[in-house]
């Protein structure tokens, strides 16, 4: 495939600007390939983040022509508009430099949503068997394959306007643990996700589900949390 593509890349911090590059077109070229070409051939100081290149690690997400995407699986032929790519850092996160954002707030919210497994058994007790077709197991399975890419977080308007909102990924994670029959952390977890900035702040407009590159549905997980927290409130297990 001959020719070049015009690529605008964000350079600098939050007050930076877009800079134009001409990048050679290649067969099956991904957006991450384009960014890598610039870093190797035009400007070695370009900062960006990636690891696996195969859609596993979740580290390569950027804003591509106005939309958050995993760049290692986004093909230029599918996402370029009018022969042009505009690539910036993810929205809703602080910019460190160029295309690299600070993911700290994203992961801090996992912690706030009690997204860590709380074991109900000691290591000397036998591991309990969870039936593959139990409703809780099926609900956890449907949400478990999150790669922590932050795409949903960048796509969520509620995150943008409410800095306390835990966001779709952290709440989706909490939902997997609420449905994990081996976990013993539901008391503090349901209290955390029902507080200000928790699941009830979500407006269910499904931008997270629409953009998730691995086809998860955080909106459905958050709807599950809304039901579960209301049930816990009615039983007097959590306070309003
Ligand atoms: S459904 Fe909720 S979490 Fe998802 S993008 Fe909308 S407000 Fe954010
Ligand atoms: S839910 Fe989807 S979009 Fe959000 S962090 Fe996980 S994999 Fe990425
Ligand atoms: S580099 Fe790992 S998901 Fe893209």
- Number of domains as seen in the coordinates: 2
Biggest beta-sheet profile = 5 strands, mixed
Distance between the termini: 61 Å
Shape, please?
Answer: elongated
Low-confidence stretches: none
SSE string, helices as H and strands as E? EEHEEHEEEHHHHHHHH
Can you walk through the features of this model?
The chain is of the alpha+beta class. It has two domains: 4-101, Beta-grasp domain (Ubiquitin-like (UB roll)), CATH 3.10.20; 104-234, Alpha-helical ferredoxin (Fumarate Reductase Iron-sulfur Protein, Chain B, domain 2, Orthogonal Bundle). It has helices spanning 31-41, 76-79, 104-112, 135-143, 151-155, 157-161, 168-178, 186-193, 207-211, 218-234, and strands at 4-11, 17-24, 61-64, 67-70, 84-88, 95-97, 100-101. The protein has a five-stranded mixed β-sheet. Helix 7 packs across helix 10 (218-234). The radius of gyration is 20 Å and the shape is elongated. The N and C termini lie far apart (61 Å). One iron/sulfur cluster is lined by residues 146-152, 168-169, 172, 212, 214, 216, 218.
Question: Can you describe this structure in just a few lines?
Answer:
The chain has helices spanning 31-41, 76-79, 104-112, 135-143, 151-155, 157-161, 168-178, 186-193, 207-211, 218-234; strands at residues 4-11, 17-24, 61-64, 67-70, 84-88, 95-97, 100-101.
